[in-house]
TrEMBL record:
InterPro entries: T_IF-3_C_sf, T_IF-3_N_sf, Translation_initiation_fac3_CS, Translation_initiation_fac_3, Translation_initiation_fac_3_C, Translation_initiation_fac_3_N
GO biological process: ribosome disassembly
Sequence similarity: Belongs to the IF-3 family.
Annotated Gene Ontology cellular component terms: cytosol; membrane
Descriptive protein name: Translation initiation factor IF-3
Superkingdom to which the source organism belongs: Bacteria
Signal peptide: none
Keyword Cytoplasm: yes
Main subcellular localisation: cytoplasm
Gene from which the chain derives: infC
Subunit structure: Monomer.
The Translation initiation factor 3 C-terminal domain, residue ranges: 78-163
Keyword annotations: Cytoplasm, Initiation factor, Protein biosynthesis
Amino acid sequence: MINGQIRDKEVRVIGEDGEQLGVMAARDAMKLAAEAELDLVKIAPKAQPPVCKIIDYGKYKYELARKEKEAKKKQKTVELKEVRLSPNIDTNDLNTKINNAKKFIGKGNKVKVTLRFRGREMAHVHQSRHILDDFAEQLADVATIEKPAKMEGRSMSMVLTEKR
């Protein structure tokens, strides 16, 4: 809330250079702001009495937007990478997939390991579970299982995350 939008009878006022001007009537505070050719901005509406500051509102909004943008820049988004396997995968192929998963986890991403079944492979689902278990065991030094292996249609999948 700024200037005329402030409807409180009394407000605690902070000057443009940060000094406390004390508790006064909202009208007097608005007069002070008008004399300085600045805006009276309500900063802490929940306080008793509400806290208002005499500042340039446009500059204040710009600073807030800049701080928000800076905070957003420092955030890291975690992606979900997928590694697909088949029940009759060879050991060298499995090692390659494990190395890829290590790279993904090293970069801070989650890895979804999917074991896809086709045709008659669906008859031997229970025998293929050890592939996912071995995969997780190989990555035990860098990753933990977030979601254990679970059947979803024609595929079995689990999610691995970076070890903390």
